[in-house]
Amino acid sequence: MSAVPKTDNAVPTVPLLINGEWVDSSATEFRNVVNPATQEVLARVPLATASEVAAAVGAAHRAFATWRHTPIGARLRVMLRFQALIREHSKRIAAILTAEQGKTLADAEGDIFRGLEVVEHACSIGTLQQGGFAENVAATVDTYTLQQPIGVCAGITPFNFPAMIPLWMFPMAIVCGNTFVLKPSEQDPLSTVELVKLALEAGVPPGVLNVVHGAKDVVDALCTHPDIKAVSFVGSTAVGTHVYNLASAHGKRVQSMMGAKNHAVVLPDAHKEQTLNALAGAGFGAAGQRCMATSVVVLVGAARDWVPDLVERAKTLKVGAGAEAGTDVGPVVSVAAKERILGLIAAGEREGATLVLDGRGVEVPGFPQGNFIGPTIFTDVRTDMSIYTEEIFGPVLVVIGVDTLDEAIALVNRNPFGNGTGVFTQSGAAARKFQSEIDVGQVGINIPIPVPVPYFSFTGSRGSKLGDLGPYGKQVVQFYTQTKTVTARWFDDATVNDGVNTTISLK
Q: What is the pLDDT, as a whole number, of residue 9?
């Protein structure tokens, strides 16, 4: 997305949030927020200046001095108000999300709801942030732990879930007593900003939550600022690796959730209709723009005969603008994304894969400029082809056939990514073997997109994740807090004198 010069026109400019105030940036470069179904420019996003990023971090740093001491009950009550406001405004924000990102209204509401679940879980902070206690670890000596906030945290979020992923980050960080600087995707920040407005309305104090916009310069500033203690990232592998390396080199905790190539392994005993529905939904929903989308179908044995049925199921999906009734597959987010996906489809043909369903050239009445690509399916795919090795991030399924479950497991484990996988079978023994032997962080059994509920943590692995603690759930409380261990001895009689002890023992 190219930068655009600063001009005075009717298109609104997305503000920054610094110390509780929405402010106009003094930036000289802007990016357009574009409706991917119509190419209408909805807003301009400023590429924040270095001084503005510093001001946002400074506000968060100052606010931490008081917010960290805010009682847990007060923090969780802010989250209770926040989740109620999200419920009240979810349909309005979903319409904004659809306009700027392209996904269907139903999927946009789901985007918000999955983030809302994390906010609801944040309301349990009273039990999530408890330490431990052991009495009499030695004579009259007790040891206990405190889970204390770590300071200013930053979040860098992607375009594909502009509601859910910011809600993975800042609610859990601030409810733990930290302050936060959020950098939404510059492609679709409008729905994110609406959620932040609700957080302020819920009672988040000035400086506790700040918002800056920008590209690489802003990302680098957040990764290197000495007052930022932790960085959360969700996005591409290239950017995620850069963020992890840069922020880690500057002494920060980092969780970096990155790219994926998610396989669905289908055994011939699977429930056929349910499996076909699951594959079509997980492969083509959100136009394939999910890091947990099914992008590779591995058909085992006689399940290889299901390809014509899968093609017919995909043909039933309606391609259209996200706000139009009945749409199943909306546009991809940008012209550049569409061109990249079309290039990979062409590469698949050149490299010898069989294109059994071609989604190129789809026309949507009333939306001639939309970034539309229909469901696309390749068979006869080899693992050295670019359509297998690269994350397409579009409505494209590649199909590979193998003879046995062991071959399928080996194929999945050879892939460098480890975000999610699934197995479809009616055999408990096969499912147990799969979940035990597969080297992937999140496993679905007859579930195509195994994103865990917020009581558990998002646990992608290998090439899909850098850092040892994942978003939300128990792991993220560890990520956003520092464990302090206290060993204490109290004497009943102040005159007790045990003498000098020069050993390491605590007798």
A: 60
| Residue 221 and residue 327 share a domain | no
According to DSSP, the β-strands at 396-402 and 481-489 are unpaired
For residue 32, the cross-strand partners are: 44
Q: Which two tokens stand for residue 342?
A: 């079309």
Q: Using CA atoms, how far apart are residues 425 and 429, in angstroms rounded to an integer?
A: 10
Give the bridge partners for 34, in sequence order. 41
Residue 414's contacts (CB-CB under 8 Å, 6 or more residues apart) are: 383
Q: Rounded to two decimals, what is the model's pTM?
A: 0.94
> C-alpha angle with apex 452: 451 to 455, nearest 5 degrees?
155
**Radius of gyration of the chain from Cα atoms?**
25
Do 240 and 284 lie in one domain? The reply is no
Q: Do 179 and 265 have their domain in common?
A: no
Rounded CA separation 150/230 (Å):
8
Is 176 considered catalytic here? Answer: no
- 10-residue mean pLDDT profile of the chain (507 residues): values are 48 97 97 98 98 98 98 97 98 98 97 97 94 91 96 98 97 98 98 98 98 97 98 96 98 96 97 97 96 96 98 98 97 98 98 98 96 98 97 97 98 95 97 97 93 88 92 93 95 73 70
Any residues with CB less than 8 A from the CB of 241 and at least 6 apart, and which? 256, 258, 466
Element (H, E) at 306: none
Which of 153, 176, 223, 291 is the catalytic position? Answer: 291
